[in-house]
Amino acid sequence: MVDRVFADVELASLYDKLNAWGPSDDFYLGFVTEAERVLDVGCGTGRLLRAARAAGHRGRLTGLDPAAAMLVQARRAEPGAEWVLGDFTTHHWEGAFDLVVMTGHAFQELLGDEDVRNCLRGARRALAEGGRFVFETRNPAARAWERWTPEKVYEIPDGDGGIVRVWHDAEPAPVGDRLGFTETYAGARWDQPLVCRSTLRFLDADALDGFLAEAGLTVAERYGDWGRGPLAPAAPEIITVARAAP
Q1: What is the homologous superfamily of the domain 9-139+202-244 according to CATH?
Q2: CB 3.0 to 4.6 Å from 181: which of 93, 170, 202, 233, for a disulfide?
Q3: Is the overall model pTM greater than 0.90, yes or no?
């Protein structure tokens, strides 16, 4: 077992293949292209900021991520952006950005209350006047983990002419608001399947709003899907657009 799925360069190189560009990326790209100065928290391989550059963005693009292996991929693909290793406990900005985003359900990796508070306070400090913090978390009422089963296998090219098979196996239900699961990789590059264990936190809208208020943020817009549908009990996402509280 390993603690982080993408803890080394080899697995980080598979990330974009496993997570194909989709509606969530289009959603965030729309915000990024409208903002002059952007901070992408948990930027991963940097593909969102890379797409913004390709779309003509000429302002400040900064990616922040705690995984060095991810930033290796980001720097290689887009040397024109600023790539920073760490998180809001190690780096602080004061009013430096018009937009802060946190994509790919990275918010759910904040397992402790202080982790959540540090992230939201850091985002609030980083925002210039009128700036926005946009992020999403899976709606716990939709129970997405029930579909994370070993029978659902994804196959992706490994870049060497072979195939990597990937599947998930989630615990039956969260313990409190935390859910454990494994992600398994199998392919010719490994002698045996590589099993990575992770835990995610599933906060509902009321809990999120409490943390946002503590950090001095207020909800400006909220959606339940990437088509900007309303947040409803069966909606898959809780997508939040927050601003500094008046």
Answers
A1: Vaccinia Virus protein VP39 (3.40.50.150)
A2: 170
A3: yes
